[in-house]
Design goal:
Keywords: Signal. The protein is mainly α. It has one domain. It contains 2 helices and no strands. Helix 1 runs antiparallel to helix 2. The radius of gyration is 11 Å and the shape is flat. The two termini are 18 Å apart.
Length: 41
């Protein structure tokens, strides 16, 4: 499944459009938690 990759790319594009570095950092933190949870880590 490439869904996580697509979601990450979309969120990255949105964050760049907003120019919100803080939002990007928060998203990466949340995404890493979700990604780790989905992998059972």
């Amino acid at each position: 499944m490439q869904v996580p990759l697509v979601v990450a790319l979309i969120a990255c594009a949105i964050s760049q459009a907003l120019g919100a570095g803080v939002y990007t950092q928060r998203f990466l933190d949340q995404y890493s938690k979700i990604h780790n949870a989905s992998n059972g880590y």
